[in-house]
Design a protein that fits this description.
The complex is a heterodimer of chains A (309) and B (276).
Chain A: H1 2-29, H2 31-43, E1 64-67, H3 68-76, E2 80-86, E3 89-91, H4 94-101, E4 116-119, E5 122-128, H5 131-140, E6 156-161, E7 165-169, H6 180-183, E8 196-202, E9 205-207, H7 214-224, H8 229-238, H9 241-244, E10 248-250, E11 253-261, E12 264-271, E13 279-285, E14 288-294, H10 301-306
Antiparallel strand pairs in A: 1-10, 2-5, 3-4, 4-7, 5-6, 6-9, 7-8, 8-14, 11-12, 12-13, 13-14
Chain B: H1 2-16, H2 19-46, H3 52-82, H4 87-92, H5 94-99, H6 105-139, H7 146-168, H8 173-200, H9 203-215, H10 218-229, H11 232-236, H12 250-273
Helix pairs in contact in B: 1-6, 2-3, 2-6, 3-6, 3-7, 6-7, 6-12, 7-8, 7-10, 7-12, 8-9, 8-10
The chains are: A alpha+beta (309), B mainly alpha (276).
Chain lengths: 309, 276
């Protein structure tokens, strides 16, 4: 009687459940089944057209922040179409690196050790402007006065990031990992003190629709990166935001100063983080952008930068 | 009509068992804790030179975390308060006094479901709405699309209620509770696995998360709510712990609603068929 009752309880529903499981299992092994399942899975999550995965900070330590370009593009829109994505490569020497990038490679003459050279990939993508989202961000950032013309909605921003050279000198930390802050002990104060990382390459090309000032977004991005409002404003007065788009902006900024590098004005950022680099020097000359990241004394940064040849 | 009578009985029964008062006390305790925490956070932020909009983001992230706690609290309360309603009455024989009345069994189940749904709506309105009001009152922070977020949290609770009642038509109180909480735990884990996939861009972790959300879609409803409620800047530059790694779509919410209806239909069918 109990068995009968139990069978009655499970009977039809159990059979339906088993049939469904069997049908799904069978469909998985049919040629179109997996494709269908994959399409169904994709429909259950919001599809982004394509994410921008342009990492220009290969050699930057664990205190590196996102590049300004990544921040600005994420603020403009989720609708990103990658039009060019060429992978990076390593280079055995200066000549090979120059062949890969297509411009004359300058290295630090003041360093006698051989650098490890890598060339970052070449990337281009377009963003479809979401005007409502941008205005909401301006509003949030305390800039409700910034209004965008209606024509900007749906307009395209095209970003072209050319290949850049990364030269790593000395004993440098490995690539930052997501768990670095909790999984690894902080380095000794003198560890990596001879590490210097030079990045050089042409300024990224950015085409924006009229009425959209990316400088405002760059300012917000810099504040998110850790600068105060006045620091961000002054920084952008000193350094053209276009020039810094491909340069990782460091976190834990303590101070910055304007310095003379190779006859032009550069910005020396001093970091306050208890791990990671101690300074970043950024300057632009002749259509090229340079950044020098170091873990040692920042007083030697300008001298190193002036030794480029 | 019978449904509403049963809903009223369920509501009064919950009141008699002091469920309403204990839930109310828990909600008020939570709001008080949140208010104190927000007060301390604002004092600490006042001591730092931080851009106003970044301060807003910090407080907004804190609000979102509080709403997540509200969500968890509401789902657990839903399961705990409703788990005994069917199996408990069957075990104690109380159901015989109700089922012998000229009232179809489906009206008993739907009535109980409605009674709990109204109670849960009240609890969500108090805790969710209270959290939003406290955050706005103390620091002017509001979630984007608060109403949509609140309704999604309520939908998640209804789903948990329906699943709990469905298992209650089969199993004992304890077993039903364990299964319902276990399924929500599975969904919780799946949701965070999807979130963790952001570290390695792992498609397999995302698939695993999707499969668990198909087995129990509760957590994915919350993650959609979190996505809708975050600030535009937090959405653009993933600030919050509920960053946009893998966002449940409208189809997923539709699936959750369908899942709820199927679970309700199964519960009705089985409650109708079983020996009491």
């Amino acid at each position: 009687m109990t068995q009968e009752s139990s069978h009655r309880r499970w009977g039809p529903l159990g059979a339906v459940a088993i049939l469904i499981v069997l049908a799904l299992g069978l469909a998985w092994f049919l040629p179109g089944g997996r494709r269908l399942a994959s399409r169904f899975f994709r429909s259950l999550r919001v599809q982004k057209v394509q994410t921008v995965n342009v990492n220009l900070s290969n050699f930057v330590g664990p205190d590196a922040n996102r590049t300004l370009q990544q921040m600005v593009s994420q603020m403009i829109s989720d609708k990103v179409t990658v039009t060019k994505s060429k992978p990076g490569a390593s280079a055995a020497n200066r000549e090979q690196a120059a062949q890969l990038v297509g411009f004359r490679v300058q290295l630090l003459g003041a360093r006698k050790d051989e650098p490890i050279l890598t060339v970052s990939g070449e990337h281009a993508f377009t963003l479809t402007v979401d005007r409502a989202r941008l205005e909401a961000i301006f509003q949030e950032a305390g800039r409700p006065d910034l209004k965008l013309p209606a024509s900007t909605d749906g307009a395209t921003v095209a970003v072209d990031i050319p290949r850049m050279i990364h030269a790593r000198y000395g004993d440098c930390p490995g690539r930052p990992s997501a768990t670095a802050n909790v999984a690894t002990p902080p380095p000794h104060s003198t560890e990596y003190s001879d590490c210097v990382m030079l990045t050089e390459g042409p300024s990224p090309e950015v085409n924006v629709p009229s009425g959209l000032d990316l400088g405002n977004l760059a300012e917000i991005g810099l504040e998110v990166a850790g600068m105060t409002t006045s620091q961000a404003k002054q920084f952008l007065q000193n350094v053209n935001w276009r020039a810094t788009l491909g340069v990782p902006i460091p976190r834990f900024l303590r101070s910055y100063e304007t310095v003379k590098v190779d006859g032009v004005e550069g910005t020396l950022l001093n970091m306050a983080g208890w791990r990671g680099p101690t300074y970043t020097l950024i300057w632009a000359k002749g259509g090229m952008v340079y950044s020098l990241v170091g873990f040692g004394d920042s007083s030697g940064a300008v001298g190193l930068a002036n030794s480029l040849d | 009509m019978g449904c509403w009578v049963m809903a009223g009985v369920t509501f009064r029964e919950a009141s008699r068992k002091k469920l309403l008062w204990t839930a109310l006390l828990a909600g008020i305790g939570f709001l008080a804790l949140f208010g104190i925490a927000l007060h301390f956070q604002m004092q600490d932020l006042d001591r730092r030179a931080i851009a106003p909009f970044l301060r807003y983001q910090v407080l907004s992230a804190m609000l979102l975390i509080a709403l997540y706690v509200v969500d968890l609290l509401a789902v657990v309360m839903t399961i705990l308060t409703s788990v005994d309603t069917i199996p408990g009455e069957i075990a104690s024989g109380t159901i015989h006094a109700i089922a012998t009345k000229p009232m179809p069994r489906w009206q008993i189940l739907i009535g109980k479901w409605l009674g709990f749904a109204v109670m849960i709506a009240g609890f969500v309105a108090l805790t969710f709405g209270g959290t939003v009001v406290v955050a706005y009152g103390m620091c002017g922070v509001t979630p984007a699309h608060a109403l949509r977020g609140g309704l999604l949290v309520f939908l998640e609770c209804l789903l948990a209620l329906t699943v709990t009642m469905m298992f209650g038509t089969w199993f004992s109180t304890l077993a039903s509770g364990v299964i319902a909480i276990g399924l929500h735990g599975l969904a919780f884990m799946g949701g965070w696995l999807e979130q963790m996939s952001g570290f390695t861009s792992s498609a397999r972790l995302i698939d695993l998360g999707i499969v668990t959300s198909l087995i129990m879609p509760s957590e994915s409803i919350w993650r959609r709510a979190a996505f809708d409620m975050q600030t535009p800047l937090a959405g653009a530059l993933p600030f919050s712990p509920f960053a946009n790694v893998s966002i449940p779509s409208g189809t997923m919410i539709g699936y959750a609603a369908f899942y709820l209806l199927v679970a309700l239909a199964v519960a009705l069918y089985h409650f109708h068929e079983r020996d009491l």
